[in-house]
């Protein structure tokens, strides 16, 4: 009798603990998705070239990285207790999982041994592991897609509001706790749009560069369109509409041309699945009116940004062309396994020791950057992964397409911790979206 009561008490305690762990994990996951854009971090190993801080040579620990680590730990505790999702049961057996784990360990060991800078590559591989884990946690989470999407969108709404304020304030104060550095349009090196003798500050949000903000908000904007299609509550729809206008305005004030184009492609792909949806076209009409009004009001800045004969734009294009030459030089150093994850600028520094810090940037193309850092081996394994997961991943998920299109013009989504985690998040959401994709298209 006592033994039976004891077993029941132990079982009840385990159930309560499992529920508590799950609740804490879900709360932290939603917090992570909302605060992901913020760059709060501890730089524990600082690199300099001369007296200038070298971003890509330094080692950092992000606040969101710590938060994600705690989420992964709680997820592992749940998994060890046998709380497996049907996704694992359907797609992975014990032998297959063992082969994958052994392959990943061998794969990562190869790149650590051959990297030109093992510390940087080790940091990057940690980021990649975190991103892969986040994708699986998103897939296995019982939190529905609408709630996850709403929280991610909410984080983007905050960035849109900040971007609007930054543009009209024309000055960004420093805040070390939020990971923001001072940006004054009168200082050289700050991202601006030039019109005559005037220098207009482009919005940064909480990011290190306006293009990063633009790519992030372009993805959030297209995600918001999907969210509005899922929403049934009219009051919440009004809030989402207003929020979408703020996100779109923040995207506009980033003046990121590649992000604008990527957002347009994302909207077009979304329209292919919603061409019979009247509400979708009402959304697009409203957004078109808002964007057109902004273009009319800030016409000189828009035309200056699109004028490739403009001094700044000519310099930008010249740098992009020179980056192609740099890419060939970096890739030729080790085309089999590449320079090592995250080590592109290290090789660039070795090749061009007289370059200033501002010249040492990854090539503005995620596909070329991946090839340079991972080489032929990495390209082969990535191709194998894409073929192996072709029935699982939804590559037509519009927000993911926005990131992939923007990747032709910028390196953010694979060269930084926030960008890489955001990319993995979109991959996870794309798989979760598959189950309701057909239903949404028909409504």
Give me some keywords for this one.
two-stranded antiparallel sheet; mainly alpha; globular; 6 strands; 443 residues; disordered C terminus; single chain
Structural features, described:
The chain has 443 residues and is mainly alpha-helical. It has one domain (2-442). The protein has helices at 2-35, 63-80, 86-91, 94-114, 118-140, 145-169, 210-230, 234-254, 257-273, 278-297, 299-306, 311-333, 344-351, 366-388, 398-406, 412-415, 417-442, and strands at residues 41-45, 48-49, 52-53, 59-62, 192-195, 198-201. The strands form three sheets. The protein has a two-stranded antiparallel sheet. A two-stranded antiparallel ribbon has the order 2-3. Helix 7 packs antiparallel against helix 15 (398-406) and helix 12 crosses helix 14 (366-388). The longest helix has 34 residues, at 2-35. The radius of gyration is 23 Å and the shape is globular.
- Alpha carbon gyration radius: 23 Å
- Number of helical stretches of at least 4 residues: 17
Order of helices and strands: HEEEEHHHHHEEHHHHHHHHHHH
Contiguous runs where pLDDT drops below 50 for at least 5 residues:
436-443
Distance between the termini: 58 Å
Number of domains: 1
> Strand portion, in percent?
under 5%
Report the strand count: 6
**How confident overall, as mean pLDDT?**
86
Sheet bearing the most strands, described?
Answer: 2 strands, antiparallel
Strand line-up in the sheet with most strands: 1-4
Shape: globular
Strand pairing plus helix content: what structural class?
A: mainly alpha
Query: Helical amount among residues, as a percent range?
Result: 55-70%
């Amino acid at each position: 009798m006592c033994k039976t009561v004891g077993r029941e008490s132990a079982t009840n305690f385990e159930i309560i603990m499992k529920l508590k762990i799950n609740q804490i994990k879900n709360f932290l996951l939603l917090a992570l998705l909302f605060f992901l854009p913020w760059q709060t971090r501890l730089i524990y190993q600082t690199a300099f070239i001369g007296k200038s801080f070298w971003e890509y040579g330094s080692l950092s620990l992000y606040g969101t990285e710590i938060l994600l680590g705690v989420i992964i730990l709680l997820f592992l505790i749940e998994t060890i207790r046998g709380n497996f999702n049907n996704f694992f049961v359907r797609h992975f057996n014990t032998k297959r999982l063992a082969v994958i784990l052994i392959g990943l360990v061998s794969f990562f060991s190869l790149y650590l041994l051959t990297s030109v800078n093992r510390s940087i590559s080790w940091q990057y591989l940690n980021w990649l592991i975190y991103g892969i884990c986040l994708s699986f946690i998103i897939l296995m989470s019982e939190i529905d897609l609408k709630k996850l999407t709403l929280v991610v969108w909410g984080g983007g709404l905050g960035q849109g509001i900040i971007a609007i304020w930054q543009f009209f304030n024309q000055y960004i104060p420093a805040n070390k706790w939020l990971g923001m550095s001072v940006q004054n349009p009168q200082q050289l090196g700050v991202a601006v749009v030039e019109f005559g003798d005037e220098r207009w500050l482009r919005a940064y949000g909480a990011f290190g560069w306006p293009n990063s903000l633009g790519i992030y908000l372009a993805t959030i904007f297209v995600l918001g369109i999907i969210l509005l299609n899922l929403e049934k509550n009219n009051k919440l729809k009004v809030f989402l509409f207003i929020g979408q206008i703020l996100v779109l305005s923040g995207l506009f004030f980033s003046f990121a041309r590649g992000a604008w184009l990527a957002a347009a492609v994302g909207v077009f792909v979304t329209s292919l699945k919603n061409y019979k949806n009247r509400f979708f076209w009402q959304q697009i009409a409203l957004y078109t009116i808002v964007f057109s009004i902004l273009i009319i009001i800030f016409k000189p800045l828009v035309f200056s940004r699109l004028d490739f004969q403009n001094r700044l734009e000519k310099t930008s294009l010249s740098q992009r062309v020179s980056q192609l030459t740099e890419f060939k030089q970096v890739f030729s150093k080790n085309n089999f396994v590449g320079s090592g994850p995250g080590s592109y600028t290290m090789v660039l520094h070795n090749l061009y020791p007289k370059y200033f810090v501002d010249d040492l940037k990854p090539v503005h193309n995620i596909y070329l950057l991946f090839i340079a850092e991972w080489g032929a081996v990495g390209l082969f394994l990535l191709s194998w992964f894409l073929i192996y997961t072709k029935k699982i991943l939804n590559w037509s998920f519009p927000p993911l397409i926005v990131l992939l299109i923007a990747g032709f013009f910028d390196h953010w989504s694979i060269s930084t911790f926030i960008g890489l985690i955001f990319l993995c998040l979109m991959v996870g959401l794309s798989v979760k979206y598959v189950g309701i994709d057909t239903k949404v298209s028909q409504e």
